[in-house]
Structures are given as C-alpha cells and as structure tokens.
Amino acid sequence: MSRTVLITGATSGIGEAIAHTFAQNGDKLVLTGRREQRLAAVQSDLEKNYQATVWTYPMDVTQIDQVTDICQKILAEVGFVDILVNNAGLALGLEKFQDYVLEDMLTMFDTNVKGLMFVTRQILPQMVERNKGHIINIGSTAGIYAYGGAAVYSATKAAVKVLSDGIRIDTVATDIKVTTVQPGLVETDFSLVRFHGDEERAAQFYKGIEALQAQDIADIVLYIANQPRRVQISDITIMANQQATGFTIHREN
Hints:
Layout: E1 4-7, H1 13-24, E2 28-33, H2 36-50, E3 54-58, H3 64-77, E4 83-86, H4 102-130, E5 133-138, H5 151-170, E6 176-183, H6 190-194, H7 199-205, H8 214-225, E7 235-238
Parallel strand pairs: 1-2, 1-4, 2-3, 4-5, 5-6, 6-7
Helix pairs in contact: 1-2, 1-8, 3-4, 4-5
C-alpha cells in the first residue's frame, strides 16, 4: 500500500536521495525545503522518472510560525502523514569552541534541534490519533563521538538521538515507531555548506577515503521503513569502511 512520506530538507543530498528511493518504492512524497526552485526541480524529476505523486512546500524549519502554518496546510491538503523523515540539518564551521562564530552555533541549534522539534510536534498528534506512523530522524555519528572543531554540531546530533528516544518512550503505548539514523562520512554538499562555499576546503574533507554516498543512507532509510509492525529499529549507525568511529578515519595518501 502506498504511504505518504514527508521529508524535510529534500532539495539536495541525503534528503533528495531519500525522496527518489521512496518514489521508486511507489510511495507518495511531501517535500519541504528552503529553496523553492530546487523543490520544483526535484518534484519534476520524481514525476518524470517514477510517475510519483509529489507535493512541495517551501519551508524553513527554524521559523516556528512558518512550520506551524505549513504543516497544518500539509495535513489539510494532503491528509495523513505515514512517515516523517526529519532530514533538514547542517554543520557550519570547524573551529575550536572558543573561536566559534556565535551566529553559526545558533543556526545549528535552530536547524538541527529546534527545527526537528517544531516539525515533529505538528505531525505527531495525527499519528497518535490514528495509532500509526513512523518518525525517522537523521542524526550523525557526531552525536555519538564528538570531535575537534565540532562541539556544537556534535551536541545538536546527540540531542537528536536523545529526543528520538524520549519520543519513543512517550509513544510506547501506540503503534508509532521512532528511529534515529546516524551516518558517518557522507559525500554530499554538507561540507560545502559547512565551509561556507569554500569548494577546495570541502573537497579536502573527503580526500583519501571512499566516503558513503547519499544513496547508501536512502537505501537504509527505506529498509527501516519497510519492516513489519513487530520490528522497530530504534537507531542505526552507518560508517564508511575506513571509518572506525566518528572521526577515527584512515585516509590513503
């Protein structure tokens, strides 16, 4: 049976790959993101390649009033959301905590933690009412293993894991599932955003290692969502082959 899947941050990288993977699976997509033109392009690709049913809603997850309005509009126009994939997130900078730009620190918390809370708070009640649903939150190995220059980013992803666990506890009497997906090094435009558009520095981040690809994460998200009712995957960690912990990486010369 076709499900309705809401994906935040669906305009590129992991979010876009997840959208393609669910569309190929025959599911209906509700896509949100800040870049309206990119949303339209992704929608066109999905409709052309998979004849998918796709709705798009420009939305900045850091803006609580906007999130409230858009999510309620989605529920009114699209109907119930079966699967919510909280993918919107980012890292900014890689400096020592004492040197960090305060605005970058706040943006990470607003997006990675508060944005996830805002969206989930709007969508979860209809899941509880129906006694059905799955929330899949995209965390990071940084939420398990902090590393230098990423104290704040790591803290936001640790919050994603603990928040997911808490929501799972609060909904334990229902048929709602809550999963945290914790990828390691994935080669997307993530590092380009982190380094504020510095392409050379972003490329260095992946040098000497075969990083994960967005499709790897998307395939795992679909696997999680396709498990039978009795199976709940609470959390899953995926790392590149030469990545032992969050930032213990072997790079070829």
